Amino acid sequence: MSIEARIERMVYGGEGLARIEGKVALVPLVLPGELVEVVPVKSDAKLLRGRAAKIIEPAANRVEAVCPYFARCGGCHYQHAPYADQVRYKSEILVETLKRIGKIEAPEPELLTGEPLNYRNRAQFKLEKDGRDFRLGYYAAASARLIEIDQCPISSPGINAAIPALIALGRRQDFPDGNSEVEVVDGGGELLITLRSEARYPETLVSAFREHIPSMVSLARADMQGGFFRLWGRGHVIIRAAGFDYRVSHGVFFQVNRHLADSLADAVTRDLSGGLALDLYSGAGFFTLPMARRFAKVIAVESSNAANKDLRTNCTRAGLENVEANRTDTAEFLANYGGQRSQGGRPAKLAGARPDAVIIDPPRAGLGQTTSRHIGVVALTCDCVCVL
Length: 388
Fold this sequence. Notes:
Helices cover 23% and strands 34% of the residues. It is built from eight helices and 22 strands. The strands form five sheets. Strands 9-8-7-10-11-12-13 form a seven-stranded mixed beta sheet, with helices on one face. Strands 1-5-6-4-3-2 form a six-stranded mixed beta sheet.
């Protein structure tokens, strides 16, 4: 049974919020102000999740999505709105979330905008192979159902140029059967390709990758335990950003928006300076390097061995000798750094030196309660904490 509802606003995750029979209803692929025919999908005492069976009264700003797979692929949430409105919705969601959950009256966010298409320098495609049947694509939203694609309008031209070759390679007899994943990183025209699978890849297939994707400079296999096995190439790409050349190896995170990297680094670091800064979840050092030009010392914390090696290499390449690179878990580092709290809630004494600034760029999974609690101890002594 469908129910008519008026969408009030957008919420985190790209869903529209409405109220149906006293419950909050969350509906994807809608816009504020629209009157929608909602089919309930899941409901409990307080929350109803539904799908839009029909847009009865579309919003004036609704547009046709650029991507032919939009609304089927689970990757993008806002392409049915103009880019300026997408940015505005996300800004409003941030302010509302900080107020509702964090009890923080946030100032008006500084918005960094760029080209809405071809901006991603990293893409992860799902692969399914059964004999001669091979498919490449993304999963549909909240499912393991693969949506087959032959292009991705938000990915870089270099990544899109590789998709037909990846499909042709997957159809080869020596490409292993089963479900797997391929990650492609575009380092300014040079591609880093990682195959995530427990299967082995024969030398004939490695040679075929080299022949069919000439822009590829390194190929590796990653297993489910997190191990990386280089199959061919130098093991990394060089990405130019924020005035530095960053080495980025297989499995190492780097900022994915190639159009906004410079602006992001500048927005985070331009007003910061002092004696000591902490860069938590530092990765290959995207923020560490520009911070090292503004602080007497930067302590960078990263648990990944590969990322920590890239960080050290990038500091050496940039001639920076004031960075202390710690390969350790952030929660463990903060537990040792923060010392003990006094009864008033403030640290009785920091075990480490008082930082002037702390940069926190956690993985998608977030900080977690333990890390957040430890950060709170250190933040009480700090002039500036920047969470990304």
